[in-house]
């Protein structure tokens, strides 16, 4: 995202990050462990707060609070650390080998080279994007109840009180009404 001009330093952001060629690479315990470790390491050097996160087999959505303009650095580091950790564990099959340019950028064969970013402008948008993250597994048909999806902040944040208790009972049909059928 070289040519992106941010008019604000910090704030609330919604992201969509996809797997390379939308292949289902974002699954399994090896990926999740490498990904979580990459997030933890990145947060130590480039702090951010997670408001919502969901990881699906071929893409993920999240809402962060960031206090500077170093968003691309954070994503580059998360992608690179995850890719390196999986390569060290032999989880890159011959069919998923990547070009020299992709390896040099740190994307490997896991990640699409860019991501979608949206600056959240008000409380209503914040609530909608957090809900969108939490209920995306239902939208894509992976589960019937969002609480059943294991790779989401929904259950943990409900139990800690960060999300309102009524979110456990939301009918997710509103997603298509508010956001349409896009991701």
Notes on the structure:
With 183 residues, the chain is α+β, with helices and mostly antiparallel strands. The chain has one domain (11-174): Transposase IS200-like (Alpha-Beta Plaits). Helices cover 39% and strands 18% of the residues. The chain is built from six helices and four strands. The chain has helices spanning 29-45, 71-88, 100-105, 123-139, 154-160, 174-179; strands at residues 11-19, 49-55, 59-66, 111-119. A four-stranded antiparallel β-sheet has the order 2-3-1-4, covered by helices on one side. Strand 2 and strand 3 (59-66) form a beta hairpin. Helix 1 (29-45) packs across helix 2. It is globular, with a radius of gyration of 16 Å. The mean pLDDT is 85. This is Transposase.
Features:
183 residues; Alpha-Beta Plaits; sequence-specific DNA binding; Transposase_17; RAYT_transposase
Strand content: 15-25%
- Can you name the CATH architecture? 2-Layer Sandwich
Find the count of extended strands (DSSP E, 2+ residues). Answer: 4
Distance between the termini: 19 Å
Mean residue pLDDT: 85
Oligomer: single chain
Tell me the count of domains: 1
Low-confidence stretches: none
CATH superfamily label: Transposase IS200-like
Return the structural class: alpha+beta
CA-atom Rg in angstroms: 16 Å
- The total of helices stands at 6
Overall helicity: 25-40%
CATH topology: Alpha-Beta Plaits
Approximate shape: globular
Main sheet properties: 4 strands, antiparallel
Strands in their spatial order, largest beta sheet: 2-3-1-4
The CATH top-level class label:
Alpha Beta
Reading the helices and strands in chain order gives EHEEHHEHHH
GO biological process, one term: DNA transposition
GO molecular function, one term: transposase activity
Protein name: Transposase
Domain Transposase IS200-like: 8-133
């Amino acid at each position: 995202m070289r040519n992106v001009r941010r008019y604000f330093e910090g704030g609330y952001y919604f992201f969509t990050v996809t797997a390379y060629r939308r292949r289902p690479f974002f699954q399994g315990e090896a990926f999740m462990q490498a990904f979580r470790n990459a997030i933890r390491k990145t947060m130590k050097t480039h702090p951010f707060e997670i408001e919502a996160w969901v990881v699906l087999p071929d893409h993920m959505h999240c809402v962060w609070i960031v206090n500077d303009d170093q968003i691309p650095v954070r994503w580059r580091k998360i992608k690179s650390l995850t890719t390196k950790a999986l390569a060290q564990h032999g989880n890159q099959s011959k069919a998923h080998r990547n070009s020299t340019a992709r390896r040099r950028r740190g994307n490997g064969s896991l990640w699409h080279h860019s991501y979608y970013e949206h600056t959240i402008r008000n409380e209503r948008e914040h609530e909608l994007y957090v809900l969108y993250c939490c209920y995306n597994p239902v939208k894509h048909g992976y589960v019937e109840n969002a609480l059943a999806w294991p790779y989401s902040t929904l259950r943990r944040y409900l139990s800690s009180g960060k999300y309102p208790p009524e979110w456990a009972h939301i009918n997710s049909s509103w997603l298509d009404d508010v956001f349409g059928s896009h991701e």
